[in-house]
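Batch job 17 of 40 flagged for manual review because the log was empty.
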Amino acid sequence: MTCGGGSAATDMMLTLIEQRHGKQLAIIVADMCLHVRSTSGAAPQKSNYAVAIGSRNQRLLSALQLMQESIEDPLSIGELCRRLDISRRQLERLFSRYLDQSPMHVYSDMRLSHAFALMNETSMSVTEIALASGFNSATHFSRQFKRKFGASPHFFRKGWT
């Protein structure tokens, strides 16, 4: 594949990511590549979740932000609801309405996308990536990773080295 210019290369890369892994991951990658993030703890992080999901529903965006902030130590649905001050039923309806998925399915995909990024960006072991992505078992992580990406983390890692 070829293209002309820096911007076209970025567009091509994002198109490939979207085709292979979905629009949400492509938007997150675009955000990481094209926007400088503040490293100051006081500055709020900008979120492209509103763009990715096509909604500005504050409760849904807050839920997604909480999930993102607790990748390594995932929150239970009950804890998410408590922190958001909404019922489990309300949370499930929000996710169903805007994302057509359950909150736990979205959370699992978010954690797997995080693991995918770690596979590409670090030299961490598969076990370390599993733990950093909130999985207590490398075996469970490997099964979920293969379900989402079509190859085990070990096979994926061998393909890139």
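Reviewer: the log was empty due to a logging misconfiguration, but the result itself is present. Residues 34-46 have pLDDT under 50 and may be disordered. Unflagging and moving on to job 18.
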